[in-house]
Amino acid sequence: MNIAEQHLLKDNLLENIQITADTLGDGHLIEGDTLNVLSKIDDDVVNVGITSPPYNKQEKHKGWLVKNVVYDVYKDAMPEPDYQQNQVDVLNEIYRITAPGGSFFYNHKIRWEKGNMYHPMDWLRKTVWTVKQEIIWDRMIAGNIRGWRFWQVEERIYWLYKPIGDHLIGKELQSCDAKLTSIWRGVPENGRKNPHPAPFPLWLPARMIISILGTEAQGIVLDPYLGSGTTAVAAKLLGHKYIGIDRSEAYMEMTCDRLEKAQNEMPKIHEELALRDVQTTFKERKSKGKNVGKYRNTVDDKQTKLFER
């Protein structure tokens, strides 16, 4: 039995089915509308979620690249107020199905329309989530080479947190994860190798999953806009269950194919894990009276400094 036969569902078959942790098996791929499918998932099921939704780029204008970001069965052109309210509704539903202490990583970008700036925080603050951190993804390439503004090479990843009670801070990260900093540098997935218009590179969801769930205990990972399935592949390779939702049959077939061949992508997981080599933790250094990260000027006086002529 292949991945599709085991795990692929359609939302029109979920009318009398409620997805729970006990019925999930290794994972589910669900073809259908995101909000409708989320309503079929039980409360407090998910441990960590990751997604990059369609950005409402209006498809047919605003830059040479946008015309290429066209989804299989979805027109990325809603009135902006409707788009933002839809995202609030989706995020609040994800909050419901996330277990207390769980996290959701929301990748988006700052956009402009006729001179008006739309920032993801415009609608994130309207959700029930606690915004734990803003991470900058330095993609190291510009999506639009016009000069109206400095070239935009970054996107934002918002770490959203569902508190346990009134404890808004949550559990401390391991040193090996926290040292990766709040600026993540890495180019997007090669479009010639992945036909989806905006795929994640595998290291990105892998980093989030490892940082929250580690590599020991099994968790449940959600991606409500699954696309080419990168989040599900990362979850599988790291030993976790997955729930992936997308309305495109073509993207679901792409995901099934990648899951069947997931071991071929394991070297990328090993590369991400290798970044976590920490000789001693913060607590161990502090207990021994060693340096714990205080600022030290390490620039050689003989070196040329920035902007020095």
Sum this structure up briefly:
This protein has 309 residues and is an alpha/beta fold. Helices cover 27% and strands 20% of the residues.
List the helices and strands and how they pair.
Elements: H1 3-7, E1 8-10, E2 27-31, H2 34-38, E3 46-51, H3 80-97, E4 98-108, E5 111-113, E6 116-118, H4 121-124, E7 130-138, E8 154-161, H5 175-178, E9 183-185, H6 203-213, E10 220-223, H7 230-237, E11 241-246, H8 249-260, H9 266-274, H10 282-287
Parallel strand pairs: 1-2, 2-11, 3-4, 3-10, 7-9, 10-11
Antiparallel strand pairs: 4-8, 5-6, 7-8
Structure commentary:
This protein has 309 residues and is of the alpha/beta class. It has a single domain, classed as Rossmann fold, CATH 3.40.50.150. The protein has ten helices and eleven strands. The radius of gyration is 21 Å and the shape is globular. It starts with a helix and ends in a 22-residue tail after the last helix.
The major β-sheet equals: 9 strands, mixed
Label the overall shape.
Answer: globular
Helix content: 25-40%
Distance between the termini: 67 Å
The level 1 CATH classification is Alpha Beta
Q: How many structural domains does the protein architecture include?
A: 1
- Please tell me how large the radius of gyration is: 21 Å
Structural class: alpha/beta
Number of helices: 10
Ranges where pLDDT stays below 50 over 5 or more residues in a row are 61-67, 295-309
CATH architecture: 3-Layer(aba) Sandwich
**What's the pLDDT, averaged over the residues?**
84
The name of the CATH topology is Rossmann fold
Strand order of the largest sheet: 1-2-11-10-3-4-8-7-9
> Beta-sheet strand percentage?
15-25%
Number of strands: 11
Order of helices and strands: HEEHEHEEEHEEHEHEHEHHH
What is the H level of CATH, i.e. the homologous superfamily?
Answer: Vaccinia Virus protein VP39
